[in-house]
Amino acid sequence: MPWNKQDYPVSMKNLKPRIRHKAIEIANALLEDGYEEGRAIAIATAKAEEWDENHPDHKASDSDSSSHKSSSDKHKESPSLESSSRDRRHSEPVSSSKSHHNIHVVPTDSGWAIKQEGESDYYSSYDTKAEAVDAAREMSSKKHIRAIIHNQDGQIARSIKS
User: Fold this and answer.
1) Which of 53, 94, 121, 131 has the smallest number of Cβ neighbours within 10 A?
2) By CB neighbour count within 10 A (0-12 exposed, 13-18 middle, 19+ buried), where does 10 fall?
3) Of 112, 98, 85, 95, which is closest to residue 146 (Cα–Cα)?
């Protein structure tokens, strides 16, 4: 289901509007490429937050800078983003940078576990979600990676970035 500015995944509701709009754009491109909805949301959220860090909003400090851009300048990022997501297949793991991968806190039959994005094996298992989230937060901080926290039903609840 394609999303828009008024109809988007509930997990994106607390994102800043600028980041949410980028996440919606990325998630729609990933869905078009055949990604599963939950995975598309997680990847899109992580990538949109990374994009925001790398592309600060200059409107707050310099409101004139955006008005001086030509319409072709404003659309330079979109084609490369679209082509990179079109070239990627859903079987390839996607991470928030080339040097590391996201980790996920996921429900299991016997409790909760932490696993590397794109892998089926678990790093470690826990009895409670709170224990798994604490361990993921620590791992995220030590390894400077994003931890994506899932609900009991497997949907993305939130993410933690050190």
Assistant:
1) 121
2) exposed
3) 95
